[in-house]
Write a structure and sequence with these properties.
This protein is mostly helical. The chain has 7 helices and no strands.
Length: 201
């Protein structure tokens, strides 16, 4: 149910998105710092909702559907906002494009698998991908002004975030390829079964 704490945490993660985008738009050291802290809190809810659902046996189809949607909305919206405000440096925009294309493709594959009464379970590589992307976005939100605000001098969170975003492309592509192979295999199997049924008929 939506009133279960794990699902509430997932909904809070979704609700944080417009607030984070507004903070990005202000583009000041203070708002960058607040955005980074709020984002860290949102990432913690991503860990907590799954852990609490398992511990309290509150797992549900609704929760399993909402959790990956919340992650994709959070990552996708923030990457678009960062790109729109010119905060994806060192070609990180192209890494963001790869990430978004992969997420759209996997969502389509999951929809097809659901129509076949099958699933496309998350892999360990995909979890690594999500983890690296979340850390990268955290640094990108912090920007370059926040480190100076807290006494870190000229340390560039933006450059480190761009590097990590590029690094996340490796598990992004590899896990996406694995999902694509699984989905295509299922499609060909469904096509063969459909052809066999027509011949038998």
């Amino acid at each position: 149910m939506l009133t279960d704490l794990p699902n509430i945490l997932t909904l809070l993660r979704i609700a944080s998105i417009p607030v984070l985008i507004a903070l990005i738009a202000f583009a000041s050291p203070l708002t960058d710092g607040i955005a980074c802290l709020l984002y860290i809190a949102a990432c913690i809810t991503d860990y907590l909702d799954g852990m609490l659902a398992r511990r309290w046996k509150q797992g549900s189809e609704l929760g399993r559907m909402m959790d990956p949607i919340a992650d994709k909305l959070l990552v996708g919206a923030l990457l678009l906002a960062l790109a729109g405000y010119g905060r994806l440096v060192d070609g990180a925009l192209f890494a963001a494009i790869v990430i978004l294309v992969r997420e759209i493709m996997v969502s389509g594959l999951r929809e097809f698998m659901a129509s076949q009464r099958a699933t496309l379970p998350s892999t360990r590589l995909a979890k690594w991908k999500t983890g690296i992307q979340m850390v990268a976005i955290g640094f990108l939100l912090a920007g370059d002004s926040m480190p100076r605000l807290i006494g870190l001098g000229d340390f560039s969170c933006t450059t480190l975030g761009a590097f990590l975003l590029w690094f996340s492309v490796i598990p992004t592509v590899l896990s996406g390829w694995g999902y694509l192979v699984t989905g295509l295999s299922r499609m060909m199997s469904a096509h063969r079964n459909g052809s066999s049924a027509k011949v038998s008929h």
